[in-house]
Amino acid sequence: MPTVRDAVLDVLRLHGMNTFFGNPGSTEIPFLADLPSDFSYILGLNEVVAASMADGHARATGRPTLVSLHSTVGLGNAMGALVNAQHAHSPVVALVGQQTRALVHSRAVLTNEHPHVLPLGTVKFAAEPVRAARVPAVLSQAIHLARLSPAGPVCVSVPMDDWHRECDPLDARYTLPRHVFADSVLNPSAFARLLDRVRAARNPALVVGPALDTEEGYRHTTALAERLGAPVWIDWLPDRCGFPTGHPAFRGTLGPDAPSTAALFTGHDLVVALGCRVFRYFVDAPAPHLPAGTELVSVTADPQDAATAVVGDCYLGAPAAAAELLASALPATARAAPGGRVLPLAYTDAAPRLLTAD
Amino acid sequence: MPTVRDAVLDVLRLHGMNTFFGNPGSTEIPFLADLPSDFSYILGLNEVVAASMADGHARATGRPTLVSLHSTVGLGNAMGALVNAQHAHSPVVALVGQQTRALVHSRAVLTNEHPHVLPLGTVKFAAEPVRAARVPAVLSQAIHLARLSPAGPVCVSVPMDDWHRECDPLDARYTLPRHVFADSVLNPSAFARLLDRVRAARNPALVVGPALDTEEGYRHTTALAERLGAPVWIDWLPDRCGFPTGHPAFRGTLGPDAPSTAALFTGHDLVVALGCRVFRYFVDAPAPHLPAGTELVSVTADPQDAATAVVGDCYLGAPAAAAELLASALPATARAAPGGRVLPLAYTDAAPRLLTAD
Amino acid sequence: MPTVRDAVLDVLRLHGMNTFFGNPGSTEIPFLADLPSDFSYILGLNEVVAASMADGHARATGRPTLVSLHSTVGLGNAMGALVNAQHAHSPVVALVGQQTRALVHSRAVLTNEHPHVLPLGTVKFAAEPVRAARVPAVLSQAIHLARLSPAGPVCVSVPMDDWHRECDPLDARYTLPRHVFADSVLNPSAFARLLDRVRAARNPALVVGPALDTEEGYRHTTALAERLGAPVWIDWLPDRCGFPTGHPAFRGTLGPDAPSTAALFTGHDLVVALGCRVFRYFVDAPAPHLPAGTELVSVTADPQDAATAVVGDCYLGAPAAAAELLASALPATARAAPGGRVLPLAYTDAAPRLLTAD
Amino acid sequence: MPTVRDAVLDVLRLHGMNTFFGNPGSTEIPFLADLPSDFSYILGLNEVVAASMADGHARATGRPTLVSLHSTVGLGNAMGALVNAQHAHSPVVALVGQQTRALVHSRAVLTNEHPHVLPLGTVKFAAEPVRAARVPAVLSQAIHLARLSPAGPVCVSVPMDDWHRECDPLDARYTLPRHVFADSVLNPSAFARLLDRVRAARNPALVVGPALDTEEGYRHTTALAERLGAPVWIDWLPDRCGFPTGHPAFRGTLGPDAPSTAALFTGHDLVVALGCRVFRYFVDAPAPHLPAGTELVSVTADPQDAATAVVGDCYLGAPAAAAELLASALPATARAAPGGRVLPLAYTDAAPRLLTAD
Fold it and tell me: Are D77 and B70 in contact (CB under 8 A)?
């Protein structure tokens, strides 16, 4: 089984972050020792230097760039450079060493005591994964966030005993390769890519989130659903309802977990998720997020939702505008409209029931 | 001379925030007493209620909505409701009472002790103006930020003795009515508005910021400058240079203060600012930001820059993409290209000197 | 009239902080230019160096030591050194430059954008005075807090236009020379000093705060009041009542402002304040905190109350234990017990009324 | 094997916290369901009410009091009440629900998204244990900190899947019953207790930390070592050296982990630790902190060190003053002085070597 470190190196490769910078200490050794030959580690003898080099590399390449910092004082030393990166919208990804999990709370030597608070004021996102298996996913989120507009530095603290733990594929499903497009979906070339993807779908399904609960949202999502002949779900326990529940295409809410959600998409080759979290689970279940053969693209205006989505490619931008443009650009479908009328959802404290009337 | 309160009420009117919610205490009385008849104050008897009503109003109207909270405990009571507003991307603007400035640092009764730290984790922006005359500007920024994508709550703390202080028009120039468009500039209807504005300009000028320092940025800004026949400045003390300094249209940097910057724009009816702060002053000078008859529109991907710009209307979105679309949509100009070749800038510790060679 | 800078230099002299360290930038020039000859400024060419020297000086001398840091990036660069100072309980006082107040909220070049948030995780106290006249008082508080147990670094941000503003003596009264004893009052030598001070009082008065609202607190404060023959007030709008309201010595609450509070102490040469804020004003009034000829000593377990007290010397430690030790060590008084019985307080929304029954 | 919940209930019993308050949600159910009959849970129908009841209970009893809060919005709702508790120095212990660890980073429904940042400004300590087995220890630290002067609220977030995990006794050794005395050690009755404990020791050992690295510290710790005839260690990798390395009693540093440290204390029935962390480990090793039959008492001025010590009872207060008082109150020892002269320590990157010269 791959280790956390294996999975992290794959995340870095996916983002082209093979060249990185740092000033090492013991808490980073499990990550740094025996680095594969496709990675280059460039040493700076104070974190000001290492983080500034990473900042320059990020500006020159336009790509997120990693800087490996030593626990607490190392992060502290780098903070002036992170302020500069913040002002320059430079996507510097600081990876900070932490003591082993067993010793963090007794404030052992080299504990990174305030990983969530120390970097405040300089970074867009500061996190320490709540368990080892989440390290690749959290680093992946951080990289996406660093790139997304307005770009800027982020910070992830990793306990030193996490690196060599096994990374279960069922956990890894949260870290599947995903593309989050930093260009707005409304950029003509980005939109063309989305349009091609949707046009190629044989049997698409829609999921709409609370962001569509506006007059404009209802108009454009119903138009899109009708143009696609697609069934529509809203997400689970939504703050608000982004689609008219009386519309024939309406199918109720997604499920509270991965199996019940994935089951709904059987037979659909593409899920188009607009303005919602992907997915707003309530219960953890070790299962795939989508049926085999189903893919997902989402559009959201919230960079954090884009970064934390558990599956699929994501476009940043206003979902209502994306729906409008899609509806007007797509040809009329030859697909039959979804059969039957779905009555408004009856919530229960068990799984949501969908009542279908013929 | 108008008071701070007068200026704040005008800011609220500008944003259509005449209906607001609250649970009052003594620190808010100078703001609330004798409210003009075009304002409605709706009372909630705990801040949970008042802030939740404001959240509902913001969701239902799609507009930023004010909630007036009592100092410290009042803000604390509202924080559960602010968490909900954050999750729902609801633009709730919390205005929190603070003791009189003379008593804040002795921790007098009703001091809002941690106005910058207490709301962390729920709001996009937390501020307390560093002097009374800045209250209208800071509230204006907060309102813009609350609306801009991803929308969400913001928080401004106002010392109770600020409300009846005079608000000098020279300070108020930072609070001029401005439109910040929450729609992306790449939304076709928003872009059409920007295009009309630029097309109508008789003699436009360009300012480009560090965000354009990419291959794509250089290509599209030079194309736009040539299409417009417009001179180009970069902003003052830029992190990076967003325009080729050897290009004939290049004119050097803006000045370090309002008078030296405004002077450069004499004769231009429109300044188009792309990917820069408006303006990155170093020195305060009580003077207009633009010459009489000059207007400004800006495009930036950074909501904070959009909200804190001191003058002009602003479009959110990628400035390079906006330049590309403008350059391709504008007709060729009949204007002469800017005369002369401007040598690369020589920095001095005095005002920047521009060396022109014929 | 003295300037803010004059008053700050006096605060530094009072604490023996004539030698300090820094790496200067333009925002600090108004403070640093033409430094009086009794001050030594030791230059470090990066803030890591300057702050580390200050840390070493503080450890070697046992005294709070100033480091002058440049705005935002300067503070950032110093943060690794501040982490070290925090771990070593070293009283480093970081004084950080800030733009002029007029430009802070437009995020001008050199703005210290997050003075309250950036230093979080490393300092005990981070502040930016809400007006120029408070700078000396806030710096004084910061120095006291840095020294008090557990000692550690603090941070104060000062707008560059504050330094040359006039500092009104009525504001300066918040900055009167005060001693805050870092030793616990229960240290035998510290207690001896307090005991001497109380024993020497001709006609002392007591103020007791919410911290004495325990069985132990009531027992020891009543014993002390009786031993001293002293009248007893509780502080204004207290969370809880630290003295039995039916006791003959009880006199009600202090006033909501300086004049009404000071008036109560007429004829008393010493006020002994136990476990309360000094003073918990509600209303600002430019007047002395005590009548001429009256002095004050306080005992509190809260370092922040000790540091922010507006007048008098302060001992850190448990006020109930201090009362117990004082009561047992003081000789019986020859003073008459306070005359008359004071009825329990009737609160009104006007000033507190004291109802005296003969 | 006991579960995390079993261990937490024992921690609560130890502190007499059997009555607690709350407003439940699903994330707290694993903790609350089937509560043992010696616990009383008092329901409040909004967190403002539950937290205010806990505050009142803490004030009335003088004991730390638990309030169980629902994830994120529940904590938000309680924050006004926590502000009140903070002002009143009331030791309210907020226990906040969190999603299951697997779902936290995908921001699932009911995720407590900012457990370290949301409560800032109201609490002395905010934590989320980095693994399930640390929950009892972190809660124990939080309770100690809430009580220690200046008392005030604290906040601990617990993932819902932690409650029923097994709690290994080797982890539990970090949670052994410990007393941390909130009274200063300089309080005569507290000091008497410490004196009795030290006087009763058959063969005590001393550990001194960086806080003793002052003239006063050296004087009093050498006097104490000589009076006790005790060997002296300094802690591992100390910032500074709190004992003269040339003194015959000096024995070098403790070890970097539990086994190497415990081994040094073989044959000593009592370790007296002054002004140091207990213990400053660098490496985790699942072993007891002390040999069988050895106990430990510590004196520190740092409440956080008192709360996070891994073993032994702790007195708050100045360690140098405690050493002075102990040295003067203890009888001369009949024990032989520690044999041999220990040469100054030679640091290596392996375990510290102690060179003994006869």
Answer: no
- Bridge-based pairing of strands C180-184 and B180-184 is unpaired
CA dihedral B208, B211, B216, B219 (to 10 degrees): 10
pLDDT digits (tens, 9 = 90+) for A40-82: 999 999 999 999 999 999 999 999 999 999 999 999 999 999 9
Compute the distance between CA of residue C221 and CA of residue C322 in angstroms, rounded to an integer.
9
- A303 in contact with chain B, both atoms CB, cutoff 8 A: yes
pLDDT at residue C74, rounded to an integer:
97
A-chain residue closest to D102, CA distance:
A284
Nearest residue to A330 (alpha-carbon basis) of A222, A195, A185, A233: A195
Answer yes or no: are the C-beta atoms of C51 and C81 closer than 8 Å: yes
User: What are the tokens at D219?
Assistant: 């004087």
Residues paired with B20 in a beta bridge: B41
CA–CA separation, D170 and D288 (whole Å): 8
The nearest alpha carbon in chain C to A118 belongs to C121
Instruction: For residues A56 and C114, give the distance between their C-alpha atoms in angstroms, rounded to a whole number.
Output: 23
Question: How far D335 CA sits from the closest chain A CA (Å)?
Answer: 34
> C358, exposed or middle or buried, with CB in 10 Å at 0-12, 13-18, 19+?
exposed
* Cβ pair A107:D304 closer than 8 A: yes
pLDDT tens-digit profile of C155-212?
A: 999 999 999 999 887 665 556 678 898 889 899 999 999 999 999 999 999 999 999 9
The three-state secondary structure class of D328 is: helix
- The pLDDT of residue C349 is above 60: no
Which chains have 3 or more CB–CB distances shorter than 8 Å to chain D?
A, B, C
Chain A partners within 8 Å of C78 (Cβ): 80
- Report pTM: 0.94
The DSSP line for A18-60 is: -EEEE---GGGHHHHTT--TT-EEEE-SSHHHHHHHHHHHHHH
Rg (C-alpha) for chain C, rounded Å, is 22
CA neighbor of A125 nearest in space, from A171, A166, A156, A86: A156
Its sign, for the CA torsion A198, A199, A200, A202, is positive
For residue B358, pLDDT over 60 is answered with no
pLDDT-based confidence at residue D295 (cuts at 50, 70, 90): very high
Give pLDDT tens digits for D96-153: 999 999 999 989 999 999 999 999 999 999 999 999 999 999 999 999 999 999 999 9
Distances (CA, A) of D200 to D197, D249, D270: 5, 21, 9
State both tokens at D95.
């226990």
- Tell me how far apart the alpha carbons of residues A242 and C239 are, in angstroms, rounded to a whole number: 47
- What angle (nearest 5°) sits at the alpha carbon of residue B316, between those of residues B55 and A330? 90
Paired tokens of B174: 């930072």
Shortest alpha-carbon distance between residue D333 and chain A (Å): 35
Q: How far apart are CA D28 and CA C132, in angstroms?
A: 48
ipTM of this complex prediction, to 2 decimal places? 0.92
Whether residue C106 and residue B237 make contact (CB cut-off 8 A), yes or no, is no
Q: What is the DSSP letter of D173?
A: G
**Helices B319-329, B215-228: crossing angle, 10 deg rounding:** 40
Closest CA in chain A for residue B276: A88
Cβ of D321 within 8 Å of Cβ of C210? The answer is: no
Which positions ≥6 away from B234 have C-beta within 8 Å? B207, B208, B209, B241, B242, B243, B252, B253, B254, B276
Mean pLDDT of C34-48: 97
Strand order through the sheet with D65-69: D40-43, D19-22, D65-69, D92-98, D154-159, D126-127
Q: CB distance from D108 to chain B under 8 Å?
A: no
User: Distance (Å, rounded) from C-alpha D322 to C-alpha D309?
Assistant: 18
DSSP letters spanning B4-55: HHHHHHHHHHHTT--EEEE---GGGHHHHTT--TT-EEEE-SSHHHHHHHHH
Distance CA A97, CA A79 (A): 15
